[in-house]
Amino acid sequence: MKKLFTNKYICAFTAVLCTLLWGTAYPLIKLAYSDMNIEGVPDKLLFAGLRFFIAGIMVFIVCAFSKKNIFDIEKERVPKILIYSLLLTVFQYVFNYIGVGNASATKTSVLSSCSAFLGVLLAPLFFKTEKLNIKKIVGCVIGALGVIIVNLGFFEGSFTFVGEGFILLATVCSSTGSLYGKIASKGKIFEVTAWQLFIGGIILCAVALPFCASISFTVKGAFELLFLAFVSAFSFSLWTALLVYNDAGNIMIYNLLIPVFGAMWSYIILGETEILNPLYIVSLSLICIGIVLVNLRDKRKV
């Protein structure tokens, strides 16, 4: 597996595929809220909990078919899994699901890309083997310019704490959770991913149910929920593998692609027209340059 996920071409393709799938989440969440009459915070947390509970079961099934023992978890790893689950599943999505309901899908995906910068900047604090260098810093700056270009409206005062503010808090949880997950998942990538999703889903449901949370299930809404669960199961598993076998900063910079894919899917699914802005071409170009610079290897060290 290590040889597979350290191949630079497979690594790049997998990272892009994950961000492409994650880009679907923002418009689909808003659509599911409408289709299943989800309005209040408890309802949204219950929806999130069901999504990750199902996602965890999906990864458990994959583990069973691949003959991985999901119960073969060392005692010292259990607290790490709990912290990983709280950061990446519970706290991130408490903030994210509430924020998504109070901001446009496109803006949500743009703000969420901040996790890319945080991942590159925080990685050296988590792992001694990862270092900041001028290429990574310049890559982050150029990528940031790409995000800013398509998010100029953010600086015009269209900011609410329970909207954009919560999304930014979610990015902090996402970055720290992903980095911590690299520590928690070594040696048991899929088993740990399954448990963090499953436990996080149960906690979210447990938080929501006492507040009389309810969901009006429809056939369309159920399919949306199942697809979102698949996105989590598939993308989190592959993303964790990429983080474990590569420098975390080099992988997390790919999160910059989420706003582009989020805008694309928002146009296709919701009809939001921000993607038609010519500045998105400039933005995508800058983001791609930033990703290349962060992942550019020093030939003298090869």
- State the shape: globular
* Oligomer designation: single chain
Series of H and E elements: HHHHHHHHHHHHH
Q: Give the structural class.
A: mainly alpha
Residues in β-strands, percent = under 5%
CA-to-CA gap between the ends? 22 Å
Average pLDDT rating:
84
**Uncertain stretches:** none
Number of helices: 13
Number of separate structural domains: 1
Strand count: 0
Q: State the share of residues found in helices, binned by percent.
A: over 70%
Radius of gyration, in Å, reads: 19 Å
Specify the biggest β-sheet.
none
Notes on the structure:
The protein is built from 13 helices and no strands. By secondary structure, it is an all-alpha fold. The chain has one domain. The mean pLDDT is 84. It is 75% helix and 0% strand. It starts with a helix and ends in a 7-residue tail after the last helix. It is globular and about 50 Å long. The relative contact order is 0.22.
